[in-house]
């Protein structure tokens, strides 16, 4: 369930209250006339079941509330209310499967910022993976996968492609390109520094590495894993299952592949660098394709569910008259 705080301009307050009060998915409706000061207007509070949240937010924006007022939404972790239980029963669908597109867009849009934190995380993750490649240590590879922040821009890219947001597409691609290039450059330099210090050497890269050589030897299963990871990642994002997202981060080899490219370039092992680069491209493309397909299926299924709900509501209103 979501808790909505709406600042409705005086000339739109009645329409907002009628909209919220007439929806069976809304409960705990409170209207405080003239309570808002910046911007000025009426403060309208309510709780909305997640199954109806996206449609209600869309209708509020269609009224133009955000232009002269404001809309804020928070998750409600606990609700003890018979009215809330009735609202959940009257609306079809499952709250766990509901997608609030404005929430997803806001969450992923934040991940496209090319911030210092993002750059440090992806650089550190790639450097850790570079050491893991040379030591043939899966533990370091898994640790690098968890630290890597690249899934944020990938998820934002999927959402932006579906919703046709060119600006966010550009920022997502920029964050991925700049992030990986900076990380690989830093890993090349760190590999040279560690070599100069006598901690690693070229022979470690050329030696048999049975536990991590999959990183630079992509095959058909690389596509399969990437596609499955994209599906799981999008579902964990839209359903707020953060624990599942951690599993997704561990399953894909984007950061390790970038690290293997950097280490191979540092030592001039071009065949391995090329294989790792191909692995990186395969995983990135597979995640975006399957993530976009997952979002499209979710959008279509909820659109059909909403249409059936509107038809049922219209029939009920007609029978009531």
Automatic annotation (TrEMBL):
Q: Name one Pfam family in it.
A: DUF389
Tell me where the transmembrane regions lie. Answer: 116-135, 141-163, 175-200, 220-238, 245-270, 276-302
Q: Which domain of life is it from?
A: Bacteria
Q: Which UniProt keywords apply?
A: Membrane, Transmembrane, Transmembrane helix
Annotated protein name in UniProt: DUF389 domain-containing protein
The scientific name of the source species is Micromonospora carbonacea
